[in-house]
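Predict both folds.
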Amino acid sequence: MPVFETPDGVKLSFQMEGSGKTLLFLHGWSMCSRVWKYQLEWFSREYQVVALDLRGHGRSESPDGDYSFSYLSQDIIDFIEGLKIEKITLVGWSLAVSLILGVFGSRLSCVDSIVLVDGTPAFVASEEFPHGLPSPVVKRMLKLVDSNFSQALKVFHDLLLSSQELEGENKDEIWDLLTNENYLPRQEVASKSLFSFANVDLRSKIKDVTVPTLLVHGEEDKICPAGAAQYMKEHIKSAEVVIFPEAGHAPFLTQAKAFNQHLDRFLSSL
């Protein structure tokens, strides 16, 4: 796999296939670029498809140091500028939705559309934003990541799919793409990135999004409730929402064909 070296000398691994306009796919917490397998296969026929392993994830280098929201967002900005891309669509899942929202307001001008998959501007619920997880649940998860990382991953993985999806087509391959131990981050990386994700509130950043936006969400998502997608639609001028019935946190895997068709239609409309 090709690599990109960040300004601070960290080698980030990525997959790149096809040619044409660039689509950059960004994975979620404790995942890697492998999760976009069905999108790389589909969209590389008409587009240049890039799937990045975030710092500390997948095949990217995993140095000691900062894994905060702002640091990971800066890696994405540096990566895009390093590839000298003129026009790009960003596709982010879960944690990467926050990273994409963080990119807006930066010096990047090449992002002409975004796709936000099962994400949220605020991971923790509040009186003003009831579409997150209860604070005690998030605090327990943070403690568990620090005290028993393998158990924390099991709890997290058990929340990813709906009961219907656990019996669905390609369930064994999908489970491997989501949970393969060979691609897991170190405990330190998972802890620092989750802590940052849990403590960031990007609702004020939504107003910076002025490009066409597709919001995709599983109706039965137990990690980022679907109400977050509706909230973002109400605050982004050029946004549309697609809700996948009976889907959990990863409809791009469990309902890949329908997801790809919706994304194809959105890209064709730009």
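Second protein follows, with its predicted structure tokens after the sequence.
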Amino acid sequence: MTKASKAEIVNLVSDRAKNRIKGSVRLEMPGTATLYVDETGAIESDRAADITLTAEASVFFDIAMGVKNPAKAFMMRQLKVDGNPMKALKIGEILSTTKKVS
């Protein structure tokens, strides 16, 4: 697992999410931060969202860097989903790539 600062995670998630995520997602990283992510990017906030994903900060960073597969992280119980699991996989796919996902 990769160590990353809170600022690095916010910037990376924000860059990946801008104009690509439909709806909103809350990323909970216990002991680090809670992010609210939508098509405008990511901000540190505990605002309610359409779906909530919970994992250690290093898991989210590894997903965003393409090191960790979001579906595998979910199956290994490193990533908890509160909401629609199919939407969560789509969000994980968006966060783990810079390419536009259809």
